[in-house]
Amino acid sequence: MPSSRRRARTKADPILAFLNIPFDQQFESLYLAFIAGLSGFGLVPQAVLQVPGSQRRLDRLVRLLGTCKYSFHDLSRVELDTRHPMTPRFNMPFELGLAVANTEYLRNGHRWFVFEAKGFRVLKSLSDINGTEVYIHKSVPIGVLRGLTNALARSRHKPTVLELQAVYRDVKQTAEVLKRQLATQTLFDTRPFLDLVLAASISAKRRIASLR
User: Fold this and answer.
1) What is the distance between the alpha carbons of residues 103 and 36, in angstroms, rounded to a whole number?
2) CATH number where 24 lies
3) pLDDT tens across 76-111, in order?
4) Cα dihedral across residues 188, 151, 200, 195: positive or negative
5) Cα angle value 111/197/64 (rounded, 5°)
6) Average pLDDT of the chain?
7) What is the total count of domains within the chain?
8) pLDDT of residue 3
9) Would you report the helix, strand and coil content of the chain in percent, each value rounded to 5?
10) Closest by alpha carbon to 92, among 61, 66, 69, 133?
11) 30, part of any domain
12) Domain span including residue 166
């Protein structure tokens, strides 16, 4: 993180939450659950795919991460990609490392959380974070929502899992509408992401009293 040229200290926005998750079709339901769940706590999900432009992805990533009070890192995608050559995906642990360095270097109060599908697997895949609480979602949306209620237990807003499920259902319906309107099968682009975040915010304010 440090460089020969001193970086300007970025002030983290207390309602911004960075999402470090797999962006692929297999993860779509959990992607929607993270957006819905974070919105239920009054947070605004952020992701590098929302920032189009000619800058390289790493520059956009570092800048965006530095503006967020929170970051949520899903380390469940540890299997080998079946396409030749078969390789693991390192983006998620790499971005977690950036968040940890951001916390230590900028000291701006950033808080990071780790999610996984299977219990204890992260102790093998990334043993350096041994001792860190890992939230296990078992690859199902309700697991993500339950994990968020525990990770953000000290939040000002305290939605129940049932309330978050209602927001998730609204977001899932919006996702199907967006696919038709935008003539696309992927929600992992700039326009769908921003529209889903807006829909989740509207739903959360309607369904969760403390957000009104």
Assistant:
1) 25
2) 3.40.50
3) 987 777 777 877 788 899 999 999 998 888 777 899
4) negative
5) 45
6) 91
7) 1
8) 43
9) 50, 15, 40
10) 61
11) yes
12) 13-211
